[in-house]
Amino acid sequence: METAEAAGRALIGGEWQAEPDGRTFTVFDPATGAAIAEVADGGAELTGRAVDAAAAALPGWRALAAHERAGLMRRAADELTARAASIGATMTAEQGKPLAEATAEVLSGAEHLLWAAEETRRLYGQTVPGATADNRIWLLPEPVGVVAGITPWNFPVSMITRKLGPALAAGCTVVLKPAELTPLSAIAVAEAFTAAGLPPGVFNLVPTARPALFAETVMADRRVRKVSFTGSTEVGRELIRRSAEDVKRLSVELGGHAPVLVFPDADPVAAAAAVARSKFLNAGQACTSPNRIFVHRDVAADFTAALARHAEAIEPGVDMGPLIDAAALAKVERHVEDALARGAKAVTGGRRIDGPGTFFPPTVLSGVTDDMLVCREETFGPVAPVIEFDAVDEVVARANATAYGLTAYVWTADLTRTLRVAEELEFGMVTVNGGPLAPPQAPFGGIKNSGYGREGGGLGVADYLDYKYLSVGLGR
């Protein structure tokens, strides 16, 4: 019943609403190119209503005791878990990732929400020694206020809960715009929160195919005190510029160009297996996806052969989905064609798959050099370029030769090398020998052109808090 009511609509103040002028946009299945839904194309009026609802709900939500907020968030996580299969199917239809991968993302999103719910109990203030015997000083944590969230299409559920969780835990209310390519997954998430009994207006959802209009509306509204954005560096820069006008808080998680460093003392076969899992997850459409795979010359042949075996074992359309749209496919083709023209070799893959949909096979390239597009731009597709190196200092410098600084991967059995290389790599996150990258308890985020702010862990919740300085003089 809820699904029928919610289909294609915005959630504002606890009510499912259409765009006032009836405007909609079409959602397509990237695996077939077929239209699958019409969704409300929210404009300035609908976005303004959402901010109104969030502002009205803020006093009541921030006043709830921590355990009451946590209880509602746990119920929402339970609803997501119970609906994981159906939400996963929705995600597969509009985003293309395999059902098992999509369902796992929903469950991961629920885990992030659960962790944030528990963090509500740990939002401690601080007692500071007074300046005199008659002075008392406290730091009081307070929610920053109404938050606008803007999420991407590549992880359309987990990116929502990773913003919603810490914001709600801190006592903020939220207006969220999902990616126009994947609004149905976001609507399904909003249904789960509604079913969990979240008070009206605490979480508001505005689907739109006019993202610039949504951004203009929330950036111009003084009641919106923080914006959390995951997406392209170009859009992130524009939001940063606009945030200056009203001095809004901002968290921006932008592009990546992740290097992998496989040293000669690493097990090349084990490293290749792990790199394949990271590289071909979501058809390579992740900001953390390994983009430049530097392998020491002594183990390059074994590593490349093992990586190719893993790539060839992946069946497109079954184990790996399509690219999100024709533009994404064209970019991958351009990168591969450029590499081949400059002397690289396609060990496996290398050409788009004929037939419907935007499928490109898992591709491994050898003989890659730093001047090729795959090394200079983020491919955002299932292409694994292997680049040989000889010296440690050389490879660290090459890995750092990018404006981005999100994720780096290191494979070595040498503890000293682990620490020295990890310290020298200019990235916000470094994972060694397959260490997990984004568990709920860890802060996720980058540096340089990959943005600032963190999602996950205690730092992720702190991004949604202000600390009020309270100084009290005591009378005699």
SSE inventory with pairings:
Blueprint: H1 2-6, E1 10-12, E2 15-17, E3 24-28, E4 35-40, H2 44-63, H3 66-82, H4 84-95, H5 99-119, E5 126-128, E6 135-143, E7 146-150, H6 158-170, E8 173-177, H7 183-195, E9 203-205, H8 211-220, E10 224-230, H9 233-246, E11 249-253, E12 258-262, H10 268-280, E13 290-296, H11 300-312, H12 326-341, E14 345-348, E15 363-366, H13 373-376, E16 383-389, H14 392-400, E17 404-405, E18 407-411, H15 415-424, E19 429-432, E20 447-448, E21 451-452, H16 457-462, E22 465-473
Domain Aldehyde dehydrogenase: 19-469
Pfam families: Aldedh
Keywords: Oxidoreductase
Explained architecture:
There is one protein chain. By secondary structure, the protein is of the alpha/beta class. It is built from 16 helices and 22 strands. It folds into two domains: about 270 residues, Aldehyde Dehydrogenase, Chain A, domain 1 (3-Layer(aba) Sandwich), CATH 3.40.605; about 180 residues, Aldehyde Dehydrogenase, Chain A, domain 2 (3-Layer(aba) Sandwich). Strands 14-15-16-13-12-18-19 form a seven-stranded mixed sheet, with helices on both faces. Strands 9-8-7-10-11-21 form a six-stranded mixed sheet, with helices on both faces. Helix 3 packs across helix 7, helix 5 packs parallel to helix 6 and helix 10 packs across helix 11. It is globular, with a radius of gyration of 23 Å. GO terms for molecular function: succinate-semialdehyde dehydrogenase (NAD+) activity. This is NAD-dependent succinate-semialdehyde dehydrogenase. Belongs to the aldehyde dehydrogenase family.
